[in-house]
Specification:
alpha/beta; 4 domains; Beta Polymerase, domain 2; DNA-binding; DNA polymerase, domain 1; about 575 residues
DNA sequence: GCCGTTTTCGGCCCGACTGTTTTCAGTCG
């Protein structure tokens, strides 16, 4: 039985949904959701903690009851409480929650009064007029439901940061030109640099008589207006993305930007802290005895609460408030500190640019080095290189390096980790490289135990320097493969192996939680673009965002170091 | 269901907007 933290979190989240429909105490429901969130991003596997006999109630949000439930899930793979709950509340009802305009109260009502259990039954009731009988279901709501049922449920769809951020930037720039508008900022999860975002949140500072709302809802790409108020409006774009705009007077901008940047969990934690100090926080500012004491800037908000400014990337209630209070916030890594890229492809395999073009593009970014890491033979689909072809490339790089003055190409390869844990090229060849980047490209469906054993075996090879896209996830397309990341990180720490943070828009792998685990274990991270063209080198910024969410500082990231230091770190295993 | 410098009970963040109401519940973020 292998129960991962995400499985336990899923159980608790499902309990929360079902209890919500059942009409349980909202704070009890929140307790399950809070615990699910904490467990999902907890740096150690509950399974291991249970085996060690660790007292789970020492974890924030977990008390006696939930501790027992976790133990039951770990030991049996299921939870009798959830099974019983499912008998009382049909799990099918959860799909109704995905319909915009339908929350737990209405699901409960639909079920109790009309026996509705699913979206299709709701549709039938809508068509035969039964819904009209329910008090509180007026013509407008019915019309909204009719429209919503015509499309796929959209409450949970998330967009990649790479796709949604440019749209947000474009709209923000367009709104800046509105009358009496001082500034417009992107808030929400995009500002926090989350890998995906559900919608676009914008905050604007405007003086009186601004026409920004009209400008907003009148944009060319607006498909529908969901909500239209004097200070807040919500629209859907033709491409399906939801956009919210909040407008406030300039002197309250900081408080509002803070409120809509979130995360919700960070805000709640901050507000609870404030209330203990006799203060109240809302989207207009911090108040003490109803007197406004901070609202201009976000820094003011934190200052009156007695702590330094917390960067948006850290605002997840994952310990940043405690760190701020103790003055031990990390100094997050920045794009300008990056001095090279350690994962790039060329026309030798599936890249679109030559060695020289890649070298010049990296130099244009101010880099001192670029590692060429074309695929190896096993990856046929990418025309992976065999021994002869790789040796030819090594020669070509040597000749090119002799000509290049301000940048060095590093000789490497993205070496396949084969199913048996050996590497895809003989050691005699690997030893001619500066270092090897190793990755899993097939047999994703092994059990956690087998997959972990496969990779740990590969790590025994002293040429194995960087573990590329370690979890194999593809956002929205493929779940990460089963893997004991704690064991992998321990091995990296023992052997001096670097973990890659792959900056491709659909990878962003490893993600924030694993960055923190690596940092705490003393494992360095390489932020790499996995560039398949010169333009791809620009993806570095996306990787930096993820690294910052993972609390990484300059010294945690190997490619903030100069060439000599990098070579030393990457080759240390071979000496 | 959790939690505690107001500690084992009684709190638990806060407000905008909508629709269907005559003062508010539900949803959403």
């Amino acid at each position: 039985m292998n129960v991962a933290n995400r499985d336990i979190a899923a159980v608790f989240n499902e309990i929360a949904e079902l209890l919500d429909i059942e009409g349980a105490n909202p704070f009890r429901i929140r307790a399950y959701r809070n615990a699910a969130r904490v467990i999902f991003s907890y740096p150690k596997e509950m399974k291991n903690l249970v085996e060690e006999g660790f007292d789970l109630t020492t974890i924030r949000t977990i008390g006696n009851d939930l501790s027992q439930k976790i133990i039951e899930i770990v030991k049996t793979g299921e939870l009798s409480f959830l099974n019983n709950l499912k008998h009382r509340v049909s799990p099918e009802l959860e799909e109704l929650l995905k319909i915009p305009g339908i929350g737990p109260k209405r699901v409960h009502l639909l079920h109790e009064l009309l026996g509705i259990n699913s979206a299709s039954e709701l549709k039938a009731a809508l068509e035969n007029g039964k819904l009209n009988q329910i008090a509180g279901f007026g013509p407008k709501l019915l019309e909204a439901l009719r429209a919503a049922l015509g499309q796929k449920p959209s409450k949970t769809k998330r967009y990649r940061l790479y796709d949604i951020r440019p749209v947000a930037q474009q709209i923000a720039a367009f709104l800046c030109d509105a009358k009496e508008t001082v500034r417009v900022e992107i808030a929400g999860s995009i500002r926090r640099q989350r890998d995906t975002a559900k919608d676009i949140d914008l905050v604007a500072a405007c003086k009186k008589n601004s026409d920004i709302m009209e400008r907003f809802i009148g944009m060319d790409d607006v498909e529908a207006i969901l909500m239209r108020g004097s200070t807040r409006s919500s629209i859907v774009l033709r491409n399906g993305m939801h956009v919210d705009l909040r407008v406030v007077p300039p002197r309250m901008f900081g408080a509002t930007l803070h409120h809509f940047t979130g995360s919700k969990e960070h805000n709640i934690a901050l507000r609870m802290m404030a209330s203990k100090k006799g203060m109240k926080i809302n989207e207009y500012g911090v108040f003490k005895e109803d007197i406004l004491i901070a609202s201009d800037t976000e820094a003011d908000i934190y200052q009156v609460l007695g702590m330094p400014y917390i960067l948006p990337e850290l605002r997840e209630n994952r310990g940043e408030i405690e760190a701020a209070l103790e003055n031990r916030l990390p100094s997050l890594v920045e794009l300008r500190q990056i001095r090279g890229d350690l994962h790039a492809h060329t026309v030798y395999t599936d890249g679109t640019n030559t060695l020289k073009e890649m070298a010049l593009a990296a130099h244009a970014r101010g880099y001192e080095y670029l590692a060429i890491t074309d695929h190896t033979q096993h990856l046929r689909i990418a025309h992976g290189l065999g021994e002869a072809k790789l040796l030819e490339q090594i020669g070509a790089i040597d000749r090119l390096n002799a000509d290049l003055e301000e940048i060095t190409l590093l000789k490497s390869a993205e070496v396949d980790i084969l199913a048996d844990g050996t590497l895809d090229l003989p050691d005699s060849v690997l030893k001619q490289l500066d270092f090897a980047v190793c990755a899993v490209h097939y047999r994703f469906n092994l059990s956690a135990k087998e997959q972990t054993r496969r990779i740990l075996k590969a790590m025994e090879n002293p040429c194995f320097s960087i573990f590329a896209h370690p979890t194999g996830r593809l956002l929205g397309l493929r779940e990460p493969y089963e893997l004991d990341m704690e064991a992998i990180i321990r091995s990296c720490a023992d052997r001096g192996i670097i973990l890659e943070l792959n900056a491709q828009p659909d990878r962003l792998d490893i993600h924030d939680i694993h960055c923190r685990m690596a940092k705490e274990a003393g494992v360095k991270v390489a932020i790499s673009t996995d560039a398949h063209s010169t333009a791809d080198l620009g993806l570095m910024e996306l990787g930096i965002g993820q690294a910052r969410r993972g609390w990484l500082e300059k010294e945690d990231v190997i490619n903030t170091f100069g060439l000599e230091e990098v070579i030393k770190l990457l080759r240390r295993r071979q000496h």
